[in-house]
User: Fold this.
Amino acid sequence: MITRAAPHAVVLLFVALAWAPSAAAQTAPEQRQIEATKLSKVPKLKKSVEAEYPAEARDKGIEGEVALLIVVGAVGKVQSVGIAEPANPPGMGFEEAAVTAAQQFEFEPAEVDGKPIAVQINYRFKFKPPTKAPLPPAPATSAPPPPTAGATPPPAPAKEPVTNFSGLLRERGTRLPLAGVLVTVFRDDGEKPLGFEATSDDKGAFHFVDLGSGPWKILIDPPGYYPFRTTEEIHPGEKTQVTYYVEKGTYNPFDLTVTAVRPRKEVSRTVISAQEIDKIPGTAGDPLTVIQNFAGVARAPLLSGLIIVRGSAPNDTRVFADGAEIPLVYHFGGLRSVIPIGLMDGLEFYPGNFSPSYGRAIGGIIDVQIKKLAPKRVGGYIDVSILDSSLYLEVPLGDKAAVAAAVRRSYLDVLLNATIPSDSTVNLITAPRYYDYQLLANYRPTPAHDIRAFFIGSDDRFAILFKNQGDLGTQVNSNTASLSTTFYRSLLTYRWIPSDRFENMAQIAQGRNQTSFRVGQLAFDINQYSSQMRDTARFKAAASATFSLGGDVIFQKTDLLVRLPRPPQEGEPQSMQLDISNLIEEHLNGQVQWLPGAFAELEWKPIPGLLVLPGVRVDHFSSVNETVVQPRVTARFQVTPKLTFKAGAGRFAQEPQPWESDSKFGNTALKTERAWHYSAGVEYKPRPYLTVDATGFYKDLQNMVSTTNAVIVQDGMTRPLVYDNNGVGRVIGLELVARHDFTHNFTGWLAYTLSRSERRDSGKTDYRLFDYDQTHILAVLGSYQLPRNWIVGGRFRYVSGNPITPVVGSVVNASSDQYSPVFGQVNSARLGAFHQLDLRIDKKWVYPRWILDVYLDLQNVYNRSNPEGITYNYNFTQSKPQQGLPILPILGIRGEF
Amino acid sequence: MGRALWGAALLGLLTLAGGGRAVAQELEPPAPRQGYFLSLGVYGASTTAHEKGAWVGPWVGAGGAVRVGELITRRFGLGLTIEGSATRGDGQKASVLALGAEASFAVVGNLALRGGLGIASMGLHDPRDPFESSTRGVTGARFAAGISYDWFVKRKRLSGGYALTPSVQVRYVPGDDTYGFYTLVGVELTYWTGLPPRQLALPASEAWRK
Assistant:
């Protein structure tokens, strides 16, 4: 019997390791001593071999002990074994047996700063003769019976070791087991110190046998953790069991999860992990608000929730969750995303030239990566902020399955109801409130099969009652206004990877969208069922060629009631007063729409360093009865490990907005809107953690839906055409990104976009600026991790103001006695520039079983009055800018368990 | 862009001050200024404001503050401050209520420089003016600077303890039409929790002491 609980002086614990250059390990003329605590990883015994008990010693029941010096190489192999202390007793063959066994050991190598190094370690073999029959446990301090005089004493029966001190090692705060950690017990016992070591197993368990009674000092000092020091009293005949929570030196959110990132294939792609998103200043911890900090993304108007990518209209960009489109990104126009941070691994953002696997969009793509559940324990968080509270819980179900659930509810309604005075002109029937809920389940019966089910639901509601009917408007025939938006989606994904050459992913999504808006006689009610099926197969035909083939189909059934004036198109000045004298009414019951699509892509590596991805997507749009073939190609050429050139071109198509192709509101003869994307750039990686990316892009927008004054004759009647496809557009720009991955305690990036986005409306000869054209968009942000679990971060943004159409005069309507504006040239003026500094401070308090995380997000630190629009007086002779949010502190608290 | 640059520079200074040597799980030798702090301060206060193109004040009075935070490295600390003051002069009154994040940096021993950002409301009131606007004054960002010294009168512990902290602090509350300064000079009673033994470099005789 060999035990690795080896007694030796406690002083060895601290400097048991010596850096040994591999070739000179045995002579080691210039060994450089380093402290074990400097290692970022201690060597861990991977393969242990039992020493053969010397026959003579075994037969005579003689115990022995040998201390070895083992040099473990940088790859974990034993390079040499020496005798540190001769065997006791000598000459029985203990040394030879121990050396032979130790030479067959294998280790996980030690590391300094992540680099494996050779080290020399002390290892002590203790030989105890095997017992022939189980013996009752004896107290550790029990003495053998005295020998009988005159008789040859029989060999003393070997004592079965008794575990009398055991415990579990857990990481403080997270409760994760600490495996492979050395636990030392020691005490001054007479003339020399006495100590024992044990190493925790995969579950963090450790045990000691036959510890003498009395007080023992305990030391646990793994690299990267604060030392854990305590004392325990061992009582005779009793077992002592403990659980120790060892505190990490820093609870770094940026390295909690290492997610495999798909190799870059696109010209432009931004990938950001949930851990990074969670700490970005100015977002108050909201996952999707981070998008506005990416290159190519314009600043959206306050509380609009719009996503404006590379000069495209907000409706041109699609948002997906694991490949399934979700209809709503934010609650109430950008207050909060519908997907909580706990359910995300990260998000991928493609501002253009995206893969053929994405379609029905001519702007950009945002794909939220839903979490790949692999919890090691029951855990989650409770998050409380000024807007809402949320709960997230994840539970492992054995080794192969896990479930997670989340729910969130706002309390704006409670706050508003409490603050509105009783003499106010309004009553809140339903104050603004939102909630969302998610359920995620993951089952991996074998590594080749991965089944995931995801369900998400969201509900926003708002209703207001004006005490006086006239307060809502003289033309409105009611004093109530209400808005509600509800949706749910269920998504089932099955990924099958039978070999490293083939992979298939099948998805089925089903859901319902419901939106209702009522103000007096104005109404918009839509109830839509949506189903989506999608399959993507990937086949590696050769080392240089991989094919991806797939198809998806969206089925939608819609019930609709609309009674509204025609909405203004992009480029049309917003009317100052809503004219509801000319309402258009539309009823649709069970209108069916099919959107089938198919795509193919080849990943071709014709020469080392060059990756070419030709592909094609074909979409059919049943609402306009049109099929569009969209060829796309991207290429990347890695000239050196640090330098990559890239380029792409492709065609993209999307259907007109629903009202544009409606028979009452628009023109049923409309066709799809098209865009050609061209981009080219260079990536330079001067350091492993630093990436600089410069990408130029050009978008040629064709068939754009535009307002027209033309008329058509339909069923013998002349009616306005309203819209046609004769609009065109062009967007040109340059994006510059410098990104610093988390290292040296810092992460952050600089994103700058210089662009110009123009449109030429139907029947016009000149281009005009796009509504959200922003010449300069700069975002600089960073987070710095300080000791004691503090993180400070800042974000600075500078963005050119949006174009506006100036009011150059006004006319008075004699019947209504109201002034109407006279507009100048469309988008010929600009609002003032936007700039803002946001700061964020995060602090974690680590308790044994949970972590308290408090953050203060201070937005608009220097209280800049940013212009968001222009307001006019009654006759449009005076104007002043509408101001954005002032300095705003947002406090959030999260308990992680 | 003036204030933008000012804010960005302050952000940079704060980051640099704390970011020079951020070393995780490094055991610190015991010292009196360690761990979390809670501080209650009483001050003599003075207020000066610039409104309608002219300066008013300085008016004098009294103020108080509560500060909580933590010393993150051996020199650099972060925390929150809530403070208020009331001053009067020239027949007028000024009141300030502020909330801010505060950084401190020990330059020599227990002598520390302070800097901070936050929000403040500085209200000005003239009881003699019946037509005075109820919103007279300025509300918005608040920038802070100061200097303090922690005097540990009686040391009983290796790490942490009570200190008397004389301090001099200046605040600036910018605004478009009105902006103001106020100063706080006084003393704080500060309690430093000290670091837990596991985070201290202790001799063996102390390390396992219960």
User: Anything to note?
Assistant: Strands of chain B lie at 36-51, 54-71, 76-89, 92-108, 111-125, 137-149, 161-173, 178-192. The longest helix of chain B spans residues 2-19.
